[in-house]
Amino acid sequence: MTKKLGFGCMRLPLLNRDDQASVDREAFNTLVDAFLEKGFNYFDTALSYHGFKSEEFVREALVKRHRRDDFLLATKLPPRMLTDEGDHERIFSEQLEKCGVEFFDYYLLHNLGVSAYQQACRYGSFDFVQRKKQEGRIGKVGISFHDTPELLDEILTAHPELDFVQLQINYIDWENPGIQSRRCYEVARRHGMPIIVMEPCKGGNLAVVPAQAEELMKSYAPGASVPSWAMRFAASLEGVIMVLSGMGTMEQVLDNTSYMTDFKPLCADEYRIIDRVAGIINADTAVPCTTCQYCVDKCPQNIPIPSYFALYNSSKRAVTDNISSQFVYYLNLASDHGRAGDCIGCRKCEEACPQHIRISELMTAVSATFDDGPGLPAK
Q1: Closest listed residue to residue 77, CA positions, set 86, 88, 67
Q2: What is the pLDDT of residues 131-169, one digit of tens each?
Q3: How far apart, in whole angstroms, are the C-alpha atoms of residue 311 and residue 329?
Q4: pTM (2 decimals)?
Q5: φ, ψ dihedrals at 159, nearest 5°
């Protein structure tokens, strides 16, 4: 792969925005064709995308209409769905059939947080994907990851046989304490692991920025789109081999391919502008938490309060509502910490908070945002 732009098949054009399975097939066909015509060839899907139909949509738009040698295909196996070792073979065979291929170029264990990693270890997922690689059914094996740098280090230490890791990296999450893009990136680099970037525009949130931030970008590069800054930030990082973009319009395909065809890394002036833009965006926060962590030591419910506030702030800035990466991180944190809804209102955290934040009250709002989300197991 020489070009770093990949087509993420999780935000495809829809006929009905309330129905993730209502993909506009003709529109998707034109996007696939244009992407390939521009010289790009990496497509990323997963079992669960678009109401568990994304792999089938990819088969119809890509696999059936283009030569197998002309594209690279990645999909994912979710360890959370496993109930015994035999599920691996069943799911993998179904994915091959749904995608209409004989092998996957890239195959990932999907969303390895604490509980998913435990599931993967319990049922031998790492051994299974290596066997499929030896059989020629998988080209490269990796993981997608939405959790702490400490857990990532544990996984990569235990599994140096992995070929790559897929991380959420963007300039607004770079220092976000709930996501920790920078620290996860640094862990991957220490392990010498090639990196594929997901959510470089944070689900579209970095495609629309405050007017003051957009003015900074446009004054420096009038012809550059706002999302191009986010894409180039991710692609400029050393060790990044691919940056995924969930493209749903021809405008997005043409814009992304325009600057990624002959990619130029960010210069020092551009990094300074991005720092200022991030500051402007972060100033618009729902909760003025400084992540000092004093509250955490006092919490009898083991609630990671600053991390939840960071995710809550991100959710309040969200401009899209179809996929919530904030919820994914919340789900993983809640698997071995207290949920926001577990707050008992003891206010010990507030006694320790130098910002005098009404944490107990805000935990109710955080809980309303995340605890009722899809997929969170009952306690």
Answers
A1: 88
A2: 999 999 999 999 999 889 999 999 999 999 999 999 999
A3: 8
A4: 0.84
A5: -135, 70
